[in-house]
């Protein structure tokens, strides 16, 4: 087993050309993940310095690969185009906090005229994250909020199908105009790419596309701001997700899991990822609860993690059919059981996000 201490010690043998310190000491190692013979982190530098740091990234990668038992290494070099929100800077390691980075009280990459940004995440694919995102967004809209939904799932953008939208977004005054469906303003990575292009995206490219959709879409106006933007993240807890959540100004996250133990272990990892970047996990939702996978696993897990349990959504044909037909179940069966469950989650989110 390779532990974190070994990895950070090795990274400190690689010298930051600017400060002359080791990379960890210099606070350049962000979001370090060490697990099962794999290690990855992000080095974020001012755009002007990317050429200077490209060889440093290569050195760091080579040094980590030389550790016995290391199977996969991923070091992502990103250009810092915006100043991070202060709360996230404060959640970094003491070394990172020590350095003289410029800090601003208001992050400049926050989408304009959007009050809150809520992420929906899962540690594992196929657990119903997109289904939950869409129906939660509808439930929030039914409670009178103006709601947007951003499909950031670069691996398999499903929002166009689930909401029944298609076609590239229009541009007006240099901004993308979101599609409107079922009372939601919607934007999907699937609308910006042709066919399966989205599948081959890598971290930095994906995060650039997401940042663009976040900040260059006309979600709201000064007169009519958007109350909440629901962001459907790509499933998993790898580099792509890490880069995205570091770049996206999130006010909170909801984690979706099935009752299976394996999915729950992944949910735990997702929670840890959000903890690392200082984004509060507002709750855990159990999806596809019922006979096949059992029931109640997520509730126990939420208690273990110390996060709110937001309830379960049973495995049901109407939920699946709604998704396939482009009419979410909360719209198709407005007073059904699923709609009721989502309404309860919406109420909890309104409270947690002080909306
Ligand atoms: N409670 C449910 N009952 C029945 N079917 C469901 C339920 N939740 C999701 N599904 C179905 O399961 C499939 C996967 O759901 P969805 O696309 O929402 O998952 P995901 O976690 O977003 O997947 P991905 O890994 O692609 O991001 C879809 O066909 C969806 O309709």
From TrEMBL:
It comes from the Bacteria. The keyword Iron applies. CDD domains: Mrp_NBP35. Residues 87-110 are annotated as: Disordered. Residues 88-98 have a biased composition (Polar residues). Pfam families: FeS_assembly_P (PF01883), ParA (PF10609). GO terms for molecular function: ATP binding. The keyword DNA-binding does not apply. Coiled coil: none annotated. Belongs to the Mrp/NBP35 ATP-binding proteins family. Binds and transfers iron-sulfur (Fe-S) clusters to target apoproteins. Can hydrolyze ATP. Homodimer. This is Iron-sulfur cluster carrier protein.
């Amino acid at each position: 087993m390779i532990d974190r201490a070994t990895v950070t010690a090795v990274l400190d043998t690689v010298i930051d050309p600017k400060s002359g310190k080791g990379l960890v000491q210099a606070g350049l190692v962000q979001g370090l993940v060490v697990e099962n013979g794999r290690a990855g982190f992000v080095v974020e530098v001012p755009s002007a310095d990317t050429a200077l740091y490209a060889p440093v990234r290569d050195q760091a990668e080579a040094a980590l690969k030389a550790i016995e038992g290391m199977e996969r290494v991923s070091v992502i070099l990103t250009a810092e185009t915006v100043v991070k929100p202060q709360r996230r800077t404060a959640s970094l390691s003491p070394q990172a906090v020590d350095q003289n980075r410029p800090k601003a009280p208001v992050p400049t990459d926050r989408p304009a005229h959007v009050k809150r940004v809520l992420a929906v995440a899962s540690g594992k694919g196929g657990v119903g994250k997109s289904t939950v995102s869409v129906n939660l967004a509808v439930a929030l809209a039914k409670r009178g909020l103006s709601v947007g939904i951003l499909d950031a799932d670069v691996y398999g953008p499903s929002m166009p199908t689930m909401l029944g939208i298609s076609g590239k977004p229009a541009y007006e005054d240099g901004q993308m105009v979101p599609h409107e469906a079922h009372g939601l303003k919607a934007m999907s990575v699937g609308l910006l790419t042709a066919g399966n292009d989205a599948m081959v995206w890598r971290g930095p490219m994906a995060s650039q596309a997401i940042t663009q959709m976040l900040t260059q879409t006309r979600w709201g106006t000064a007169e009519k701001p958007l109350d909440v933007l629901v962001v459907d993240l790509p499933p998993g807890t790898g580099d792509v997700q890490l880069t995205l959540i570091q770049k996206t100004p999130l006010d909170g996250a909801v984690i979706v899991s099935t009752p299976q133990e394996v999915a729950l272990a992944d949910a735990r990892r997702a929670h840890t990822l959000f903890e690392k970047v200082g984004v509060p996990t507002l709750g855990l939702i159990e999806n596809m609860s019922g006979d096949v996978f059992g029931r109640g696993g997520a509730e126990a897990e939420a208690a273990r993690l110390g996060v709110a349990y937001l309830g379960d959504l049973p495995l049901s044909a109407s939920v699946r059919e709604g998704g396939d037909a482009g009419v979410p179940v909360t719209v198709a069966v407005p007073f059904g059981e699923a709609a009721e469950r989502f309404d309860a989650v919406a109420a909890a989110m309104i409270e947690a996000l002080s909306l």
